[in-house]
Amino acid sequence: MPKLNEYDVVVIGTGPAGISAAIYCVRFALKTLLIGDSFGGAIARTHIVENYPGYIGSGLEMMNKWKENLENLNVEILDEKVVEISKNNNNGFNVKLSYDGSVNTLSIIYATGRQERKLKVKGEEEFLSRGVSYCATCDGLFFKNKIVGVVGGSDSASKEVLYLSNLAKKVYIIYRRDKLRAEPINIERVKNSQNIEIIYNTNVVEILGDKKLQGIKLDRPYNSNDFLKLDGLFIEIGADPRSELAKSIGINTNDINEIIVDEQMKTNIEGFFAAGDVVNRREKQVIVAAAHGAIAAYSARDYIEKLKT
Fold first, then answer.
1. For strand 204-209 and strand 239-241, is the pairing parallel, antiparallel, or unpaired?
2. 96 near 119, Cβ under 8 Å?
3. Considering 138, 219, 262, 302, which one is annotated as catalytic?
4. Among residues 8, 25, 139, 277, which one is catalytic?
5. Are residues 111 and 244 in the same domain?
6. What is the crossing angle of helices 16-27 and 59-72, to 10°?
7. Does 251 lie in the same domain as 218?
8. pTM of the predicted model, to two decimals?
């Protein structure tokens, strides 16, 4: 094996897919490094997880349990951001880190997840952390007994709304379609809540305020007014795959920038595997991401074994 490569596998991303991959890689006796700057990924910011077999509780508690697994296996974890990936001269990859260091590896499992989408309206950046938030679990307590809005109609948006309804005096859902796209059980919970109100077929076109957010402008009147007074606005309109670093070395993606993988989580470049929400699979769920990570680890093991024989 070439001396240049310090690791058999570098797993990039510390969400469910990356954690699962690292656990399996270490159990396969592969020299493994797990790198990520946001442990637990998006699920760690989720108020309640109810659809993972054997577990009901907060996403953060769930990820802390997974962290115990890593610690029990002595998985090497680096709390750092990856800024560049390139091929090295010894049949492997160089992974450059934001503090100017780098590591070399024979293979990569890329599990970076997705990045929350922005509304891209006037006032969004200006009032970030001054009323605008992308995480109800993180910032909900700041709006206790206040009036807030949530933009979005997906299941994750509905969960944010339900969490906020236990804190805020009033919660508005502002959604561009005519019905929510959440799981039926969550739609029922939203509709049965006394302090949640849904505004359908409506978009936010501007976020307004002075030193902090004071309200939003809508693209159509609601109760005869296109201004809605709010103390806070939570944006939950989906997310985009964090595939830029992979694309930079020639990894193939689809038309929405998801990494294209086969059933073994292989990409078009040998030794480069991908897993979780960043890949071209419809289901963006913890249970699916964890399975992806395990499959990718099996593929990485097979690849390393072939290299070493």
1. unpaired
2. no
3. 138
4. 139
5. yes
6. 20
7. no
8. 0.84
pLDDT value for 259? 98
25 is catalytic: no
Host domain of residue 185: 132-235
pLDDT at position 309 is: 84
Give 264-296 pLDDT, tens digit per residue: 999 999 999 999 999 999 899 999 999 999 999
The answer, yes or no, to whether residue 5 has pLDDT greater than 70, is no
List phi, psi (to 5°) of 137: -65, -35
The pLDDT of residue 1: 36
State the catalytic residue, choosing from 25, 37, 100, 135: 135
For residue 30, tell me if it sits in a domain.
yes
Residue 37 CA from chain centroid, whole number: 12
pLDDT higher than 50, residue 46? yes
Burial of 232 (0-12, 13-18, 19+ CB in 10 A): buried
Question: What's the CA angle centered on 27, arms 23 and 28, to 5 degrees?
Answer: 115
